[in-house]
Design a protein that fits this description.
Strand order of the largest sheet: 2-1-3-4-5
Structural class: alpha/beta
Largest sheet: 5 strands, parallel
Shape: globular
Bound molecules: 5-O-phosphono-beta-D-ribofuranose
Order of helices and strands: EHEHEHEHEHH
Helix content: 40-55%
Strand content: 15-25%
Distance between the termini: 49 Å
Length: 163
């Protein structure tokens, strides 16, 4: 199975990014997590992205806050799909990160999830990897069924409480 790279702009992003890592682990997807900054370590960002495909990665997840250019810079150096997690790390409640990530120019997409939407980034990456992995596709089916059962149970509880 292809690996998923989880890159964060700073170790201060880890509390949010942990939810992404936990979900990848729950799906049994091999991953590597790194701290690489588009601004503070641009050479490492270029090196990682340029070699990611040859190094066995299938998807790159990039989490960053403030002027969040990490996803875009990584996407510039690879044809692998890049998923962006805008991190709420500034006084602007993450709107700055969201817009910095999502407003990519034509030709260089970054599939941006919600502000701090780390779990969804992992699920989206899993869906991409599952296109060529039947076992993972089954896990995703099961995941959706469990979600459905959870909501049905909550609805039943609400109906019981309301009489
Ligand atoms: C971004 O700046 C990082 O992704 C982080 O969200 C934010 C703050 O970084 P630190 O100053 O905490 O290292 O590049």
């Amino acid at each position: 199975m292809k690996k998923v790279a989880v890159i964060m702009g700073s170790d201060s992003d880890l509390p949010v990014v942990k939810k992404c890592i936990d979900q990848l682990v729950a799906f049994g997807i091999p991953y590597e997590a790194r701290v690489i900054s588009a601004h503070r370590t641009p050479r490492q960002a270029e090196e990682f992205a340029s070699n990611a495909k040859d190094n066995g990665f299938g998807v790159i997840i990039a989490a960053a806050g403030k002027a969040a250019h990490l996803g875009g810079v990584i996407a510039a150096y690879t044809t692998l799909p890049v998923i962006g997690i805008p991190i709420k790390s500034s006084t602007m409640d993450g709107l700055d990160s969201l817009l910095s990530m999502v407003q990519m120019p034509g030709g260089i997409p970054v599939a941006t999830v919600a502000i701090d939407g780390a779990q969804n980034a992992a699920i989206l990456a899993a869906q991409m990897i599952a296109l060529s992995d039947a076992d993972l596709a089954l896990k995703l089916e099961r995941f959706k069924l469990e979600m459905e059962a959870g909501v049905v149970a909550k609805d039943a509880k609400l109906q019981a409480e309301l009489g």
